[in-house]
Amino acid sequence: xxxxxxxxxxxxxxxGVATSDIKSGMDWWLVGAIIPLLCAGLVTMYSFTGDNxxxxxxxxxxxxxxxxxxxxxxxxxxxxxxxRVTITLYTAACILLAFLFIVGKVSHGAASWISFGLFSFQxxxxxxxVLILVxxxxxxxxxxxxxxxxxxIVSGLYAAILFVxxxxxxxxxxxxxxxFIWLGMVMISGISKKHLLIMLGIVIVAVSLLWNFGFKxxxxxxxxxxxxxxxxxxxxxxxxxxxxxxxxxGQFLGKGLGYGTQSRLKxxxxxxxxxxxxxxxxEWGFIGVLIMFxxxxxxxxxxxxxTERGATNFEILYGAxxxxxxxxxxxxxxxxxxxxxxxxxxxxxxxSYGGTHMVTEFLALGILMSMRRYARPVHKDVIKNEFIGPx
Length: 391
Fold this sequence. Notes:
Blueprint (H helix, E strand, L loop, with lengths): L2 H4 L21 H21 L4 H21 L9 H21 E4 L2 E6 L4 E2 L1 H18 L8 H19 L4 H18 L3 H22 L2 H11 L10 H12 L11 H4 L11 H32 L5 H25 L17 H19 L6 H9 L3
Antiparallel strand pairs: 1-2, 2-3
């Protein structure tokens, strides 16, 4: 049984939750870790933009996202357990992604945005959250049978449809996140080693097909540059090369707020979105990065703590999916900034410029906070039957 589920049967708890904590409200540890990251992103944008438009626009999105977070946390979200609701949301996500073929706004080579004039919406961010809900619903009654290959295939089809709809636009970064959300939730549900090896084989075949028939030339250039970063530092490898310089030049204490030359002199492209980690590291140095990682660590820790307090399998698996969502985003963004991973356009949670991903992140956490509110004690035998079946 996965370690996450074992915590539910510890002595002295009821359904894995201390009775005194069952009706606890907002997780202020989580909020307290998020606020400094929001401020760090704003300060970094403010210090490098002449008219400060990025910082001012981002501030508006932060206020709106926080409003969504606190509002959703007060709503009883148990309706999301309904199969009808999750399938409706999944269908809506597919329709929105398909709609991009007609009205998609091209940005950096990908038609992944729907423009509404004053703001744009990226459906792939919504699709990531919907996939977590769908997989949580699917596995909530089937994770005991995860050894059956059929459940891995069916869950994989849910992810594959979204993956294909995203990759064809093409949006390699979002497609990667969708794949890793599915992989992470399958592994949490208890996949066997044999099936894991089979999955890895399928992934290798799929990647080979994508390389020959799916990837655009600029996406191939990013991967080639990842393998040989110095081959084209004035072309495809320019972004990764400059971000590596920016991170390294921060050294131990950083250059100071507003003195990051790579960003200030425009050597570092997209410093407000994809490469905000590099811009931050150049100004704040190793100490600042260490504090940033500590805050992200607290966020993941609090997500896991709240996940263990889930009222049913659905809440537990949803929380696990949210944890995977943030871990993958952080890992991919930092990895591409220090040239350990290809550049894929993945934002850094709570820090990168952009409204859609910010709202999605706070919506995901708002749902988790709502689940925290209605966690309640249930007799241990009832829960044991739900998790491992009647004896």
